[in-house]
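[SOLVED] Need 3D model of a three-part complex

Original post:
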Amino acid sequence: MSLRRNKLGVILAILSIFLLAAVAGCAKEESPAPAENKPAETKVLKLATTTSTEDTGLLDYLLPEFTKDTGYEVQVIAVGTGQAIEMGEAGDVDVILVHSRAAEDKFVEEGYGVDRRDVMYNDFLIIGPADDPAGIKGEPDVLKAFAAIKEKQAPFVSRGDDSGTDKKEKGIWKKANITPEGDWYIEVGQGMGDTFRMADEKKAYTLIDRGTYLALKDNYQLEPMVEGSPDLLNPYGVIPVNPEKHPHVDFEGATAFAEWLTSEKGQKMIGEFGVDKFGQQLFVPDAK
Amino acid sequence: MKTPFKLHNVIKRYGEREVLHIDQLSIPAGKIYTILGPNGSGKSTLLRIMALLLVNDEGELEVLGEKVTWEKRQLLRLRRQMSMVTQTSFMFQGSVYYNVAYGMRVRKTSSRKIRSRVGELLEMVGMAAYRDADARTLSGGERQKVALARALAVNPRVLFLDEPTSNIDVASAAEIEKYIRHINQEQQTTIIMVTHNLFQARRLADEVFFIHEGRIIEKGPGELIFTQPRDERTAAFLRGETVF
Amino acid sequence: MEIIVQGLKEGFLLIWQGDAEIVNVTLLSLQVSLTALVIAALIGIPLGAALALRNFRGKHIILNTIYTLMGLPPVLAGLLVYLLLTSRGPLGQYELLFTPAAMVIAQVLLAAPIVCGLTARAVMALSQEVYDTAATLGASRRQATLTIMREARMGIVAALTTALGRVIAEVGAVMLVGGNIRWHTRVLTTSIVLETRMGNFSTAIAIGIILLVISFAINLLILALEKRTFRYENTIQIT
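Solution:
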């Protein structure tokens, strides 16, 4: 009998721990909600964007301020550029923030989005193992660096997920007139963080955006090899979804978001982001 | 083997409770014995110990001339000279044929021999038509007959029967009894049967053990125990009164 | 709705044309998961039987642990294997990370507790009479154990089916330890994730269909086996 009661006690204890945890979790989520300034009704805006803006922490930095200024809560769906654009085409989101100029232009041309604006750019770099088997460290021309990697058949991890970064990389191979093929070219079909991890594990080269690199570099051993080449710049654009294609989208909110990002305040915040944490600016604002 | 079973001070407990306590028991070969007693008296426990399915906690046990050590090879050697029909006549998944052939198969008997022997036994118990039937679809009486054929297939020197006719109709029970007697007479198989059916015990038994609260309180020739019980508790049981 | 119809159409077309990459991905999926299942069966069935049939101290703790592991989150299994195999991990020297072997290991970790736990349950559900009957008919301990396993076979087949269903449909572990490398460690589930992420919904659906067809085929096979093996099985009849 006492044993049974003990058992029951243990079960109750475990249950109450779960319950407490759940309550604590809720409380935590609710407490920082700004009490003052809060509009009567919260308007929700859906944003599809690339993993890079979320992984670097940029959105966490910008969005509370945007909410304070406009009253819009932003729900972020962080995916690859390809899927983000698909979501915009399907009208599943109100606005997209992506980085693939060709795909963005096509998106606007086909009438899915209107009023694209430049927001900022970041840059990419090639990172690789310290022993640098392809001998590209310090090479100013990324095309030559890619050619050397191919020449030496040095392992290169490609995202291979049709993301903005992946498109950028494929574009560079194309410009260098190389078809990357063979065992040395490893297409992993994963996000930037995972790709970084796998490249590190395999002691391979990879193309990475500076934001992700700075955020994660302490965990891994790969080092910067090639940077600063004009071919490595990566511009971001914000595009509201066209309300004529999808009448249910919140065009007003989407426009407010685009305007806020390109406003003096938004641009200033983008420029400042990351300086305190990484000692280095991650994104360069370039709204016109 | 003149005396297949000798028990000396055999005790079995479940936890604190002593469920069986046999001071002295020897069972000579070739007869039909019934162990009689009310529910929970320890009948099945005694049977299971003699069949080497249950280890006694104390005492000495001699089976088929060997002192039982419960060593693996001895256990198998002794068990292979005995067989049992359990209370529910548990049937393995599979056909009637599979079930009857089981004991011979584990003894690596040739399949030609198995086939003829199974046919013979099914013929004897009147189940030949069911050779390929699913054993689990048989009725209670049919199962008992198959279980009996299965136990006999291995030519046991000792056959244990645990309530062999408990769940079946009178006609089937009579048939089973007929086979039991037949086997005993033809092959001098020692038959040890647990039952709480008085009439069956009386009809079949050469000798009856009456067991009460784990102890044998009366034993003797079948007829005698019914007509002149010496112990008051036996008499009460025979009169159909509850014994406490 | 349109996108689903479109996806189905393009999906069937891709399968019909025998797209080399899809064929490669499908074969690898089968190879990895079936290998994992065989290994899990070799470990899980004997272990499950032993747990069910032996009595020893701590048996209940072990059983409860195995039941808990049956619900091991695939990503966690993946993480454990990852940490073992990473170049800085204890087994790093074998360079198994991001190979099909690593995926097999992770899936064994997921499948073995299921096979073991469900086998143990199937065996424990049998009555004492199975053993008693076998023993009184002269079966040796080994023969009686085999008979017990034979009686439990329907439960064991169910255990294997459940395990295979779990590993072939699992994505978290193989993504982590396989790395989803094209032509090397990309399987059906990681392909679906990738294609969806790229917005190629029709390809994703095509691969999804293949996955469904495989599951269906496995179940058909098992049904056929059951019909042969379980000819004598009792089923509950409801009138």
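Edit: Chain C has a mean pLDDT of 89.
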